[in-house]
Specification:
With about 550 residues, the chain is α+β, with helices and mostly antiparallel strands. About 40% of the residues lie in helices and about 15% in strands.
Length: about 550
C-alpha cells in the first residue's frame, strides 16, 4: 500500500509573513536600490509571491538587485512592508502616487485594489472646510493614473464627485482653467468636461472670456469644450450666455475651415428643437440576457463589461433577479465578492447603491434567505450603500395595474430642489418642483409599444409643476415599482424583466416575475417560461411608480 500525502496548501497573497523580517540579514537576499545610493534588503520568495514581475526578474533572469530609484524611499518601504504584512499601514497622500505606480508596475493586484480603496476613501472624506488644493490633489492623481497607468477608474470617481456638487465645481473648475490655460492635455480636458456636465455654463463662460482677451480665435480648450458639451441644453437655461458667445464668435475674422465648421454647428445648435420625450436608460433589458448564465461567476464577468450596466443600481438588480430565479440553499457566493464589487465600482465610476433598494428589495424568505443575506453583507462590507445619496420619489397617487399598463398616462412626481441639491438651496420659482413620466400603454396585439419616457422639455410642463434639468435627467434616474406584498412595502425590480406582456390567450398579464392573477389561477401560457420564481399579485393590486434620483451633493 502506497502512502499518499496531501499536498500542502498553497500560500495566497496578501499574507502576513511578519514585517519584522524585512531587512533581516538572515533572510534578505535581494536589494532594492534607491536614489542617493540607499538600499532596502528583502526576501526574494516573499516579494515574488506578491509580484509575478519580480518573480520573473529574480527566478528567470537571476536579478540580485532591483532598481527603484524613480520612487520615493518611503513609498518603496511601504510597498515592501505591504508584501510582508499584507497591509498598507503607512500609506498616505505624500507617497500614494509612487506606491500606486509600483503596485501597477510590479503587478501586485491586491495592492492595486487597496490603493484604489484608499483613493475612494480620500474622495469620500473630503474635509468639510475644503479648498482648491484638496480637490486639485485628487484630480491630478486621477489624471496621472489615466495618463501613465492607463486606467480611468480614479478619474471617473473624482469627476463624478465634482459633477455631484455645485460648490465643488465652482471652487475647482474656474480656477483650474484659469491657472492652466494653454497647458491642458486631452485627459485633463475630458476630466473637466465630465466634472462640469451639470454646469456646462462654467466652460462656456471660460470660452467667452478667452475670446474677449487678445486676438479672437478658438484655443485648443475652447474647441474641445464646444465640441463635447451639451451646448443647446446650456443655452436653454442661459439665453444671455448664448447671446454673449455668438457675439464673440462673430469677432473671429479669418477662421480655419475646421473652426468655421465648428462655429456653423454651434449656430445650428442654437436653433435645435428640444425633443419632448426621452426614454429611460436600460429599463427593458431582457431577462434572458442574465438568466442564460448557469454559474454566478459567469454572470459577474458579464456584468463587469456589459454596456447595459451603467450604475451600481443596475448591477444590484441584475444580481438580485438572477439569484431570485436560480439560487437555493446550496448556492454559495464568492468569498471575495466585496472586493469584486469594489473593483467594479472603481473601474466604472459607479456611485454607491441607493439604500432603498437594499432595504426594501432584499426581503426574501425561505431556502434562499441565506444567499440573499450573504449578498447584502458583501455590499455593506465594502460600504457601498448610500442612505443620503438619493432622493426616493413616488408618484402623486397609486394606480391599479390595468390603469398603469393599458391607459396613456402622464404620471406626476413632486420633489424639491433643496432635497435633491441642498447646496443649491431652495427653489425660488412658483409651483412645485418635479417631473412627469409619460406612459405609452401596452396592447394585447403588440406589447412592445409599451414605453416609459421622461417629459424633458421644460416648456411642455403645466403651470403648477416645473422641471430642473440639472437635477432631473435620465442619466441619474432609476425606476422601480413600489407595492405592498404580504403586509410589507417592497420595491419590485423591472430593469431586467423586459416589458409587460400577456399569455397566449390574453387572460393573464405579467411584468417580469410579477403576475397579476386571482387566487387559484396558474400563470401558464407565456412564451418565456424561464422565470421559475414569481410574485403572484391579485388583479386589484395597487402599484406606485417610484424613482431613485441621485442627489446633487452626495456620493
Amino acid at each position: 500500500m502506497t502512502f499518499c500525502e496531501e499536498p500542502a496548501p498553497k500560500v495566497s497573497v496578501p499574507a502576513d509573513f511578519g514585517v519584522e523580517l524585512l531587512g533581516d540579514p538572515n533572510h534578505a537576499n535581494i536589494s532594492f536600490n534607491l536614489r542617493d545610493n540607499q538600499q532596502i534588503h528583502a526576501n526574494s520568495v516573499i516579494v515574488s509571491l506578491n509580484s509575478p514581475v519580480l518573480q520573473r526578474l529574480i527566478s528567470d533572469l537571476c536579478f540580485k538587485t532591483i532598481e527603484v530609484d524613480d520612487f520615493q524611499k518611503d513609498a518603496v518601504q511601504c510597498f515592501l512592508e505591504g508584501c510582508y504584512s499584507g497591509r498598507l499601514a503607512k500609506i498616505n497622500k505624500g507617497i500614494f502616487r509612487d506606491l500606486n505606480k509600483m503596485a501597477h508596475v510590479f503587478k501586485v493586484n491586491w495592492m492595486e485594489k487597496r490603493c484604489a480603496s484608499y483613493y475612494r476613501y480620500l474622495i469620500e472624506n473630503i474635509p468639510d472646510k475644503y479648498d482648491f488644493q484638496d480637490l486639485l490633489y485628487l484630480f491630478e492623481e486621477a489624471c496621472f493614473a489615466a495618463r501613465h497607468l492607463k486606467t480611468d477608474a480614479s478619474l471617473n470617481v473624482i469627476t463624478s464627485k465634482l459633477n455631484s456638487s455645485a460648490s465643488y465645481r465652482k471652487c475647482f473648475v474656474p480656477r483650474f482653467l484659469d491657472e492652466n490655460a494653454g497647458k491642458l492635455d486631452d485627459i485633463e480636458l475630458n476630466g473637466i468636461v465630465k466634472a462640469s456636465q451639470r454646469q456646462p455654463e462654467l466652460l462656456v463662460s471660460f470660452v467667452i472670456s478667452q475670446l474677449k482677451v487678445g486676438k479672437p480665435e478658438l484655443s485648443k480648450e475652447a474647441k474641445f469644450f464646444l465640441q463635447n458639451i451639451n451646448i443647446s441644453r446650456c443655452f436653454r437655461k442661459n439665453p444671455d450666455l448664448q447671446t454673449s458667445l455668438i457675439e464673440q464668435l462673430d469677432r473671429i475674422e479669418s477662421p480655419s475651415t475646421a473652426d468655421y465648421k465648428l462655429v456653423l454647428s454651434l449656430y445650428k445648435s442654437c436653433n435645435t428643437v428640444v425633443e419632448k420625450y426621452c426614454s429611460l436608460h436600460n429599463t427593458f433589458n431582457s431577462f434572458n440576457t442574465i438568466n442564460k448564465f448557469t454559474e454566478f461567476s459567469d454572470l459577474l464577468e458579464f456584468l463587469k463589461s456589459s454596456p447595459d450596466v451603467k450604475s451600481f443600481n443596475m448591477f444590484f438588480e441584475a444580481v438580485f433577479c438572477w439569484l431570485f430565479n436560480n439560487a437555493n440553499s446550496s448556492t454559495k457566493l464568492p468569498t471575495d465578492l466585496s472586493d469584486l464589487i469594489l473593483e467594479m465600482m472603481t473601474k466604472n465610476g459607479w456611485r454607491n447603491i441607493a439604500s432603498h433598494l437594499v432595504n426594501y428589495m432584499l426581503i426574501v424568505d425561505g431556502e434562499r434567505f441565506s444567499v440573499f443575506q450573504s449578498f447584502e453583507n458583501a455590499i455593506r462590507k465594502c460600504k457601498a450603500v448610500s442612505s443620503d445619496g438619493y432622493e426616493y420619489i413616488t408618484s402623486s397617487r397609486e394606480y391599479e395595474w390595468e390603469d398603469l399598463l393599458f391607459k396613456e398616462n402622464d404620471v406626476e412626481f413632486v420633489t424639491s430642489q433643496n432635497n435633491l441639491s441642498p447646496i443649491e438651496g431652495p427653489c425660488p420659482d412658483n409651483g412645485d418642483c418635479g417631473f412627469i413620466i409619460h406612459i405609452t400603454p401596452s396592447k394585447e396585439e403588440d406589447t412592445n409599444v409599451f414605453n416609459i419616457q421622461l417629459l424633458q422639455d421644460p416648456a411642455a410642463y403645466p403651470s403648477h409643476l416645473h422641471l430642473h434639468e440639472d437635477e432631473i435627467s435620465i442619466e441619474n434616474m432609476h425606476f422601480a415599482l413600489e407595492m405592498t406584498f404580504s403586509g410589507k412595502k417592497r420595491l419590485f425590480p423591472v430593469s431586467w424583466y423586459g416589458k409587460p406582456n400577456c399569455n397566449v390567450n390574453g387572460s393573464i398579464w405579467k411584468w417580469g416575475a410579477i403576475y397579476f392573477i386571482d387566487k387559484g389561477e396558474t400563470p401558464l401560457g407565456f412564451s418565456d417560461e424561464n422565470i421559475d420564481w414569481r410574485w403572484g399579485l391579485g388583479r386589484q393590486a395597487k402599484i406606485t411608480p417610484a424613482f431613485l434620483i441621485q442627489r446633487g451633493s452626495s456620493t
